[in-house]
Specification:
Layout lengths: L2 E10 L3 H16 L4 E8 L7 E10 L2 H10 L1 H12 L3 E8 L5
Antiparallel strand pairs: 1-3, 1-4, 2-3
């Protein structure tokens, strides 16, 4: 069954433009991995002054594909963002499973 992996990002305003440019390429890199079927990027409204935020919702084939991502790719990809932007951002992650009607 399909699964949604959602990442919500809060970024300091001073680095927001550079972060967004990196985020777009980061999403492309993730979409090239096995099991990822698509992604939506949306800007958050109502963020505190001096901050910008985005939410990325990745669609994956199934939970096995997400588990493989966590095991084989997530540590390296997360480390890249930290190496580039340090503590200038924070990420919140959650997993959503569609409910059958």
């Amino acid at each position: 069954m399909a699964v949604i992996y959602e990442v919500t990002l809060h970024v300091q305003g001073a680095i927001a433009d550079a972060y967004l440019a990196w985020l777009r390429s980061h999403i492309g890199e993730i979409l090239a991995l096995p099991g990822f079927e698509g992604a939506e990027l949306a800007e958050l409204e109502g963020v505190p002054p001096g901050e910008r935020g985005w939410c990325v919702r990745y669609r994956l084939r199934d939970r096995d594909a997400l588990d493989a991502y966590f095991r084989e790719h997530a540590p390296r990809l997360r480390a890249d963002g930290i190496a580039r932007f340090g503590d200038g951002f924070r990420a919140e992650r959650r997993i959503l499973a569609p409910v059958e009607r």
